[in-house]
Every structure is written in structure tokens, then in C-alpha cells.
Amino acid sequence: MRITFLGTRGNIPVRSRLHQRHSAVIVDGGGGRVLIDCGVDWAGRIGRLRPAAILISHAHDDHAAGLKRGAPCGVYASAEAWSAMASWPLAIRYVVPPRHQFALAGVLVEAWPVEHSVLAPAVGYRLTAGSGRIFYVPDVAQLPNPAAALRDVDLYVGDGATLDRSLIRWRGAVRIGHASIGTQLGWCAAAGVKQAVFTHCGSGIVRSNPQEIAVTLGAMAREHGIRARFAHDGLSMTVLKTESSPSSR
Asked: pTM above the 0.85 mark?
């Protein structure tokens, strides 16, 4: 299975050479290209990506509003996301039920509800193809039952909004916002995940010197026994079993 990061910038005004566009990744399991997320600055650009299908993690503009002009293929999203996207000109709509595995273009997909937003409830996706398994969750405040969600995962693709500063708020008993990378590395370590990549990068990371922030993340990750890096626009990785490090370019 191959994952290519097309956009890695969070919902922020600042950009850098490495982080130009909003969240979008292509996953290719051998049966076609699945586009996951499609932020607002992808509007009018989807056709050139040639996706066989599109998955949406949640309906915030930086993850979904690239679909406001339509899509060239079927779109898969949770019932909550479809409520927010009801008026968009999307002809082929599929509701993704939580914790129900289904096949999509050679990839087995399973949606896991996570805490992130009350107004735009989010899911993470477990994606399995060939010898590799990814858990993709670019916006997350809390991952319920991380041991189960991350079981046998070879690559965790997580929320890069903040390295170690808390961006969590509460709405009643629900966390909203973004878990720190340090917190997410703890989830991975407890579940035995050995490799992590962080996308949806926040202002502090986008503005930082890329080499220096990479060294900081690498040191944090090693404390948990994990190899970790930041994604950047254009990064492509082949995901294999944990014993083999994903190759990248």
C-alpha cells in the first residue's frame, strides 16, 4: 500500500514551501487511488488526481470543502458529515457506518469515531491493503480505546497541529480541539505502533526550521521507541509490516 501526502497544512493562514495546501492524501492499495480528505483549496483540482473514490474524515472546510463544486467519483463519509454537506452537488453518496469494514478500490476501510469537534464530528480510518495497515486521523482531540483502534497498525498518520502545547478544550464531557503530538506518541507506544507521520501541521510547525523541528520530533519519538516524521506536500511512502520501515521519497 502506498500513501502520498498531497496537502499537509492545517486550518491556518501561514504556508511554507513544504506545507502549501490543506489536507489531502492518496492511498493506493493496488485497485485504484482513494483520496482521503479534500480541503477547500483543492476545489476545482480533484479531477486531475484521478481518484476512484473519496473518503472524508469530517466536514470542516480544510478537510471537505474542496467538494463544494462536486466530485468526479463517489464520496464516502459519516452520516454526521453528510448532514453538513447535504447541499453540495455530489451525485454519488455513501454513508460510512462506524466500525464497519468494507472494501474500496483494493483497500479495506473501517471508520473509528474520535473526539475532535461537536459541530463536525470526526472519524479516523483504519486502512488495510496487502501487508500494510494505516490508521489515518489528521484531526483528533481524543482517540477512544486506542489499543483497539491501533491494533496491528504499521503506520499512524496523526494530527500535527501542536508538538507539545495543549489545544484541548471541553464541551461538557467531550474534548474538542487537537491532541498534542506527544500525547499521540503515547497512544502509539501503548499500542505497539512503531512508526508515525504527522500531517495537518499547525502554525508553530509550519513556521519552524524544518531540520530543527524534525530533530525535536525525532527525539520525542525515540523516547517512546517510535520512528516519527512530519509529512510534507508530495511525500510518498510505501507502507509495509512494522518490521520494515516504510520507504519514502
From this structure: yes
Instruction: State the first-to-last Cα distance of the chain, in angstroms, to the nearest integer.
Output: 15
Which residue, among 1, 49, 42, 51, has the nearest Cα to 22 in the 3D structure? 42
Q: Which domain holds residue 112?
A: 2-248
Q: What is the 3-state secondary structure (H, E, C) of 197-239?
A: EEECECHHHHCCCHHHHHHHHHHHHHHCCCEEEECCCCCEEEC
Average pLDDT over residues 113-141: 95
The rounded distance, in Å, linking the Cα atoms of 81 and 75 is 11
Write the pLDDT tens digit of every residue in 77-108.
Answer: 999 999 999 999 999 999 999 999 999 999 99
CA angle in degrees (0–180, nearest 5) for 111-229-26: 45
Would you say 55 and 27 are in contact if contact means Cβ atoms under 8 Å apart? Answer: no
CATH number reported for the structural domain that contains residue 175 in this entry = 3.60.15.10
Domain count, the chain: 1
Residues sharing a CB contact under 8 Å with residue 211, sequence separation 6 or more, in sequence order: none
Per-residue pLDDT at 249 exceeds 80: no
